[in-house]
Amino acid sequence: MIDLVKKTCLLVGCCAFAAFADAPVEGCADGTVVSSISFEGLEHTNPRVVERELLNKVGEPFSVEKFNAEKLRLQDLDLFTEIEVSCRSASNSEFRIPSSELTYTLKEIFRWIPAPAGKKTDRDGLMLGLALANLNVLGEDIRAEVQYRTTVDPFFDKNEYAFYASSPYFLGFPLGWNFEFLVTDSYDNIRGFQENSILLDLDLDYKVLPHLSLLWTVAGRDLQDAAFLPELGIGFAFDYRDSKLDTRRGVYFEYMLTHVGEGDDSDSDCDVSNGESCRGMGGENFWEYLTDARAYFTLGKFVTGATALVRLRPGDVKFYDYYYHGGANTFRGHEADSLSLGVHEALLTLEERFVLLERRSASVAGVNFFYGVQLVAGLDGSLLWDKGHPGWDDYEGAVYGGLHLVIPALDRIRFEVGYSPDKGEPVFYFGLFDKVTSSRWRSR
């Protein structure tokens, strides 16, 4: 997952002064045959990036319903702040019935970002640093970013060096890919060990049908004082959401099977036959069965979402990879701590969003962006256990509410207050990305 750098403060501070415009369907009537398609406003984006998302085609009747679906697909690219379409009668058309020339007008988002880098995790808290990101490399919807981050409290206590790159296509094929290189020098105060690690990770998503994707993951993590930990996984996903970002309707279901580690026998600096511990913490050898289910429904300005993330890991799982619950990205009832650790987990959420301000485009000092505001309230459920089946002693529940600011690339900034009856006091949380995204990748 790319943890992109943003001019967050600029976006938040300028929203009140921003000029914005709606995206009308100007002069386009249902049923009018499309004689040609052209684009305006593509200064840095290759036209084929837009073309592959279009549903209206030359020679076919124009459909407003298709345009609304196209608009959501183009918004998912996170490259444009405005998407409009207009039609004019074709003067010299090969079609014998009335036809129109279709023009898509798009306003591109900011591309290069030399700026402060931000990340918020339950383990490390708020991390800041420097980064250079390009959201549209070569105009091909490839995102790349290099960055350095360190903790704010205290400064330079935990450090990360990272390179991220991703794209929904590879050489024109619908093969989404996400590459991550991460160097970590950080004390894990939840699990209680010094993490000095190097991670290489590649995730692939091949769309075999419009709503069905095959998934692969391959990774290698070298963890000092433990072992080299390879990962190899395969899975599938059914995706019937109207949009991947700020989903309003539809369902998503993903299943992944991943094997992690090789056990202590993979370590070259110890002899397990003599009972010697391998690099202190030892290697791992386990399977992970992951289920990620999401459902959304909209009625007026109210958006209801129900999500469930379940991960079962039979085998040898060491303490340094135990799951934790607590914080903005897992369970908003209390902060993460060493008392909330387990081998297996289930995260359940029922959330109601009220769209206070729909997505609107804006431009400040030549920087194009968009923003929206949503009020949220919901219920969090947490199950965390080590062996066998979970019981009520492994369950925690909480209520939460707050405000979400919808912005480019980060998806949203979350300001939330959670309350758990077990703890008896409200806790304020600040988070980046949608919680269903950050809960999958909350440690890195």
Give the key terms.
444 residues; mainly beta; 17-stranded antiparallel beta sheet; 4 helices; 7% helix; globular; disordered N terminus
Question: Quick recap of the structure?
Answer:
This protein has 444 residues and is mainly beta.
Question: Which helices and strands appear, and what pairs or packs with what?
Answer:
Elements: H1 8-14, E1 25-26, E2 33-40, H2 47-51, H3 64-76, E3 80-89, E4 99-108, E5 112-121, E6 125-134, E7 143-151, E8 159-167, E9 175-188, E10 193-209, E11 212-223, E12 227-239, E13 250-260, E14 285-299, E15 302-312, E16 315-316, E17 323-324, E18 341-342, E19 344-364, E20 367-385, E21 395-407, E22 411-419, E23 427-432, H4 435-438
Parallel strand pairs: 1-3, 2-4
Antiparallel strand pairs: 3-4, 5-6, 6-7, 7-8, 8-9, 9-10, 10-11, 11-12, 12-13, 13-14, 14-15, 14-16, 15-19, 17-18, 19-20, 20-21, 21-22, 22-23
